[in-house]
Amino acid sequence: MKHLIYILFLLSSYLTFSQVEFTANASRTRIAVNERLRIEFKMNVDGDNFTPPNFVGFQVVAGPSQAVSQSWVNGKSSMTKSYTYVLKPTKTGKLTIQQSVMTYNGNEYKTTPQVINVTGAVAQPKGPDDQSISVEDSIHLVAEVSDANPYLNEAIRVVYKLYVSNETGVTGWNELDSPKYRDFWSQNIDNRNRQVKNGTYQGQPYRYLVLREAVLYPQKTGKLEIEPLTLDVQVQIPTSRRDFFGRPYTTTVSRTVSAGKRAITVKNLPAIGRPASFTGAVGEFDFKVETDRAQLDAGESLTATVGVSGSGNLKLMELPKLKAPQSLEVYDPERINKVSTNIYGMRGSIKDSYTVVPQYGGKYVIPPVEFSYFDPKKEQYITKSSGEILLMVEGDAPTTASNDTAVASESESKNLIKSNVPFAFIKTDTQLIDKTKSYFFNTTTYWAILGGLLLILPVVLLYRGQVEKRSADVDGNRIRTANKLSKKYLSTAKKNLGNHELFYISLEKSLHNYLKSKLHIQTADMSKDKVDELLDQRNASPTTRKEFSELLASCEFARYTPSSEASMKEDYEKAGRVLNDIDKQLKK
User: Fold this and answer.
1) Lower CB density within 10 Å: C or N end of the chain?
2) Residues of 362-377 as b/e, b for ≥16 C-beta within 10 angstroms?
3) How many whole angstroms separate alpha carbon 201 and alpha carbon 210?
């Protein structure tokens, strides 16, 4: 029985001990040196021996004011006891209000220290209970650029962060303006796992959220600008009003924040020491030229690959060409891309796969292939060579007779008259002419023509009316003209395959005129978002819209980057396929 009483006594003591609350609450955690704050030390028991802190760095303007309240709810009593001071800071900086102490039932209790940030004087100081917070100081949108002075075609990172002060909250936002990356090859990085993190902004503690990340490759030298990201943010800020428990009420306001324009100064690649084999590669790469076999029979085929792997502008570079002896028939290469893009740039490999067919037996040497790139970290050009490749081909060696002589002999034999055709140039049929004169008037043909003219007259008048009506249709004529120009420039692009600049100029004009004819849109309105919206309204599929946007982007950036004939051919075929798909989908 004695043990039971002792256990009950300990349990009641523990419950009493665990229910004691002794807190310190400052009305503001950030004030100016010419402002005041109120701090309240509150307990939920009738404690003794209350000892306030020394308030180092503050002057006590008023207090302590003591308040005691007691209430009964559902037969249970509760009480609060508080000591309140009004303080004025005596200096700027980060000041700490130390712990206060009180005792209850022989146990000592302490409050948590309060950190107060004191800034310089303000023109309109606030009172000790003014909880209003400047919206401008509570939220910031920042664009962090990894390198503001990169080389041409060197990857840089742009990270957009939304900083929010600890006293405020954000309930949502709408994007007003998206950042534009003119003169950059760009790719947005998927950021689905957004997490709020703690950080600092201008030396003050903030929470922040990464909203968007992008990797950019500058395509021009000189000073380039990144257009800002602008948001409309719904911000929750505390007010001077408090609820029954002393917690401040909050209000939601709308605030427009912008990351501002960012200037990027792009350096040109050094002209001194630039190798002749340099084709625009920037980064860190490995280079290989390989064949899938070294011995084969004449007429059989082998595969030779020219490949580059590593990190850098893999999608924007041009691979060196494979050179082979004339007796080896080499077909146009097939491009194989295995490139992924993350916040640090492109990484992976690209290959040109050639099909090679030896015509005759013998030993053949594929000469070395050189590949040069610029390493921005080392700030120097690096050249790598593949070395010679020896092929052993079984079969007959080529004859000494020249192909040109054989062709000439064959051509001459076609002009000879064979001995078994003795009358080859004597005509065997005749064309006789009737000498009897005939008159056209009053003949069947005469009346047929006259009747036909009378029947054609209404058709001519109807056609003339349609022509006049069509001539008056200004918008329709503009659309038809744009459609014709689109086909014309697409045909011109095909003729310019191999001419990098003329090809992409023609292809871009074809796409623009196609938009004019199909979507009734002018060149000035041809933004990426506008075109995508109009295609969506006309029931174009998401895949087709994405491919069309990629074509427009390819034409825009291809002017500043070298492209192979294979890449141009791929873009031409893609353009024809995408335009055909849009035609089918818009007719539905």
Assistant:
1) N
2) bebebeebebbbbbbe
3) 14
Q: What pLDDT digit, counting tens, does each position of 103-120 carry?
A: 988 888 989 898 988 888
CA distance 119 to 157: 34
Buried b (16+ CB within 10 A) or exposed e, 276-298: eebebbbbbbebebebeeeebeb
Looking at the chain, the whole-number percentage of residues with pLDDT higher than 90 is 28
- pTM over 0.90? The answer is no
| 8 Å CB contact between 357 and 328 | yes
Of 585 and 208, the one with more pLDDT: 208
Query: 38: buried, middle or exposed (CB in 10 Å: 19+, 13-18, 0-12)?
Result: buried
Mean pLDDT, rounded, of the chain: 80
DSSP, collapsed to helix, strand or coil, labels residue 318 as coil
Nearest to 395 by CA among 362, 361, 363: 361
CA-CA distance, 59 to 114, in Å (whole number)?
16
Total count of residues recorded for the chain: 588
What is the DSSP annotation of 94-121? EEEE---EEEETTEEEEPPPEEEEEE--
- Which two structure tokens, joined as six digits, stand for 46? 């009738």
Instruction: State the helix-helix crossing angle for 565-586 and 500-519, rounded to 10 degrees.
Output: 10
The token duo for 347 is 């990484």
Secondary structure letter of residue 146 according to DSSP:
S
DSSP character for 368?
A: P
Encode pLDDT of 265-314 as tens digits: 999 999 999 999 999 999 999 999 999 999 999 889 999 999 999 999 99
Q: Which residues contact 379 (CB under 8 A, 6 or more apart)?
A: 270
Residue 65's CB is within 10 A of a number of other CB atoms, namely 12
DSSP code per residue over 211-277: EEEEEEEE-S-EEEEEPPPEEEEEEEEEEEEE-TTSPEEEEEEEEEEE---EEEEEBPPPSTT--TT
Pairing type for strands 370-375 and 278-291 reads: parallel
Could you identify the residue written with the tokens 């002794």? Answer: 22
| Residues 245/224, Cβ–Cβ less than 8 Å | no
The structure tokens listed for 421 are 């055709």
Cβ proximity of 391 and 291 under 8 Å = yes
